[in-house]
Amino acid sequence: MPRLTLGLFVAAAMPGQALAAATVPASGYHRAPDAIARIxxxxxxxxxxxxxxxxxxxxxGRENLxxxxxxxxxxxxxxxxxIDPATNGQAExxxxxxxxxxxxxxxxxxxxxVSLPEGTRxxxxxxxxxxxxxxxxxxxxxxxxxxxxxxxxxxxxxxxxVSAAFAGMPYEWAPDSASLxxxxxxxxxxxxxxxxxxxxxxxxxxxGGRRSAARTYEDLLADAHDEALFDxxxxxxxxxxxxxxxxxxxxxxxxxxxxxxVSPDGRYLLTERLKRPYSYLLPxxxxxxxxxxxxxxxxxxxxxxxxxxxxxxxxxxxATVKGPxxxxxxxxxxxxxxxxxxxxxxxxxxxxxxxxRLLLQAAPFNAAPVKLADVPKRYERTLWGxxxxxxxxxxxxxxRTEHRYAIAPVRPGETRLLLTRNYQDRxxxxxAPIVERNAAGHPVMRFTPNRQAVFVTGEGTTNAGAYPxxxxxxxxxxxxxxxxxxSAPYYEPVAALLDERGERILTRRESAKLPPNYVVETLGxxxxxxxxxLPDPAPAFAKVTMRTITYARADGLKLSGDxxxxxxxxxKRDGPLPTLLWAYPAEFTDATVAGQTVDGGNRFVRPRGISxxxxxxxxxxxxxxxxxxxxxxxxxxxxxxxxxQLQQDAQAAVDAxxxxxxxxxxxxxxGGHSYGAFMTANLLAHTDLFRAGIARSGAYNRTLxxxxxxxxxxxYWQATPTYTEMSPFTYANQIxxxxxxxxxxxxxxxxxxxxxxxxxxxxxxxxxxTVRYIQLPAEPHGYRAMESTQEVLWQMTDWxxxxxxxxxxxxx
Length: 812
Prior knowledge:
Elements: E1 9-12, H1 18-22, H2 34-40, E2 47-50, E3 56-62, H3 68-71, E4 76-78, E5 81-84, E6 89-90, E7 98-105, E8 111-113, E9 122-127, E10 133-140, E11 143-150, E12 155-159, E13 171-173, E14 179-185, H4 224-234, E15 236-242, E16 249-255, E17 257-262, E18 268-274, E19 289-295, E20 300-307, E21 324-329, E22 336-342, E23 356-362, E24 370-375, E25 378-386, E26 389-396, E27 401-407, E28 416-422, E29 432-433, E30 435-437, E31 443-445, E32 453-458, E33 461-462, E34 465-466, E35 469-474, E36 481-485, E37 494-497, E38 504-509, E39 517-522, E40 529-530, E41 545-552, E42 558-565, H5 571-574, E43 577-582, E44 586-588, H6 591-594, E45 621-624, E46 629-631, H7 642-659, E47 663-673, H8 675-686, E48 692-696, H9 720-726, E49 739-744, H10 755-766, E50 771-776, H11 786-803
Parallel strand pairs: 43-45, 43-47, 44-46, 47-48, 48-49, 49-50
Antiparallel strand pairs: 1-50, 2-3, 3-7, 4-5, 5-6, 7-8, 9-10, 10-11, 11-12, 13-14, 14-15, 15-16, 17-18, 18-19, 19-20, 21-22, 22-23, 23-24, 25-26, 26-27, 27-28, 29-32, 30-31, 32-35, 33-34, 35-36, 37-38, 38-39, 39-40, 41-42, 42-45
Helix pairs in contact: 7-8
């Protein structure tokens, strides 16, 4: 049965360091250093959402970091999900709870506070299609409920006992904004299954000689009792209820309704329902699935797909299921379905002209589906416009290639290639069409008034920085026309168009010194009008300085990183600082793209949670996200030269900060989280650049992830030398400098099971390394509890202060 375990704190040291290590207490949470703790404990900045008509903002207050008591409440880990059995919703670790709601008119600035009862916690807030109400899922004494709030500040209960065990929204607005479809708990389900203390027999799994490779997943079903629990907590009803409450109508009886969607005309309901047999090797997304259409009243119309357990997929990233998949409504039509079907049996390595086919079928769904398009790579998404224009995107992982096609749904089967690009190419990114909710609440592209073009927005990335833009893209093809571009010193992405011609826009403006706030910009002139007044969440960081530095590694590849310096630091006066490099490697197929550098000087940066940037308050320089590209030469896999390239990346970064006079070569530390932790251990094993390392929630032995990891598609048996050389566990005996290992005991990330750090600690300790191993009770891959967060930052600071900050005394 799923269970929660307790945490341990373990320390080991070389004989000469035993006294220092012994001073660390063996239990209890530490408060972070005061300068850090004050920021963590301060109020958080609200989140803002714009209404579909762009007239209103919903300003939603956020809870601060949860307590360890909340994080430690009993949870169930079932089928890849983590749920709270007390609420029948997602576990605390998966939810960002909101606690206040203010509605603000964009034009006048007038604010209306929704008078929620004291202590209210809610999530999953969404606007009705007409922008007149906001729905939200509220935690109650006996579970979850659905409330709506109107523009006058009143709120009302709509439905009790909402079932939010599946990820995603447990409700959807009907197109008329007068009602909602809601998934609720089955009222007839009775008490939860109780595990027997006497086994009924062995757990038997039999492959039957059938190939069934699976990556390493967390939180899987383990036995018959888990299966019973999955049925109990994930089974629900679909009901229809008015936006103001009232009597509910059952639309679908009890079932494992993992997803549902109302057609744009409100006449039909698309559903996905999971079925048995379940898997103990794969999460629920691979379970047998029935995709079907019914009337909005629940009467069956057509089954689109009834696929078996998807346990025969290749391990390649572009592998997919056979038969219809990614079934969705055509947003700009009353009731037409689109889906993709693999033409390669789901295997991207198959030699076929087209890997995917897109099919359309309109109500009443009794005619044969029509081919909308064949695409040469794996289907990614469709952006809908009207009968004359839609945009289809496909992608290929191996080459990082993206194609965009123009199609006219009124002329199915015809495609027109608009562009081919490397989707990692930031400089060449043309942006994407602006997508807004139409009157039915479905996403469609925003056309210019003459419908000859669509509005496009993008990051506008250059080596001088990212300057978001607004443009027109002719649907007939040709160059885009820039209408507006962010001016320095701001970073200002477009949030919404406020008129038909796109001459007034709502943006979210920030700079290095100004926190993000919403602004109305008038194209062609006029003073920007600030709409919100959200505060600086950490004013103590206002005097921290940052600049993006560029440099090159030994083979000439251009690299960059964001160099942060403590408030008040002066290089001439203060000299070189102890420096922390915090990084995360990335794989590329194109050296030109890998070498793109972007100045981040117009971004507003404030640390939250377990951010390494907090070390700036403790006298350290931080080189944040220094480029660590791993580039595949022509025809080769990037990881075949992973260690060599990683060494070159790190050497170049260290040399760069030392050359500036900022970094002290003798007082360098390296750290990272997840794949960054893997990187850290490798750098400590294969270089002598660093005095110490910090590795959080990493994987260190790649034989424990034999069917691929990160960007590696090959299996252990296909690339044994690469797996072996990339595993720092193989070279644990070469790590001679102090390393701090931290891991959440409830890690929920694919491949980073806590046993990775447990075994790495044993290997390091057995080889006499200086190592401290911190296990955080109840924490997932990214640590969330206030107590855990402060503990992590205390441990990081303590480690750096012990092993990096002190200057070495020259030998006499």
